[in-house]
Amino acid sequence: MTGETTGEKMTEKMTKKLKLPDIINIGPFPFELRPDAVACAAGNVNGSMMADSQVILLSPNNAKEAIQETLMHECLHAIWDKTYLGIKYPDTDNDSEGELLIRTLAPYLLGLLKDNPELVKFFCH
User: Fold this and answer.
1) What domains can be seen in the chain, in order of their start residue?
2) 118/102 Cα distance (integer angstroms)
3) What are the start-end ranges of the H helices in the chain?
């Protein structure tokens, strides 16, 4: 017996499968990406952004595409929290203006980046 928990095994599998970075920068703020099946299941969510601790939790149990969309969604929450958007369009619950905007934008922004690798290269160089 190795002493690894099921969560640790899933985290390792997810990190290898998606090549998920440990840290991403959202504006000047570094956010830790942390696969956590237990916390996501307890909250009945695919992911969660914790602004104060600068952590994004992701459920490793989902398909690759679902994890990617969830990460984009949670990154938008981080942007919302750190900007005027969070004041103008609060994202306090599932029916709030901010949450509806984030839910609408996330798949389109993800698609824009995934479907246009030359555009990503242009932005990054």
Assistant:
1) 6-124 (1.10.10)
2) 25
3) 6-18, 37-43, 64-82, 85-88, 97-115, 117-124
How many other C-beta atoms can be found within 10 angstroms of the C-beta atom of residue 110? 18
User: From CA 58, how far away is CA 15, in angstroms rounded?
Assistant: 11
Q: Are 10 and 35 spatial neighbours (Cβ–Cβ below 8 Å)?
A: yes
pLDDT per residue as tens, the chain (125 positions) = 455 565 566 555 555 567 899 999 999 999 999 999 999 999 999 999 999 999 999 999 999 999 999 999 999 999 999 999 999 999 999 999 999 999 999 999 999 999 999 999 999 99
Q: How many CB atoms lie within 10 A of CB 38?
A: 13
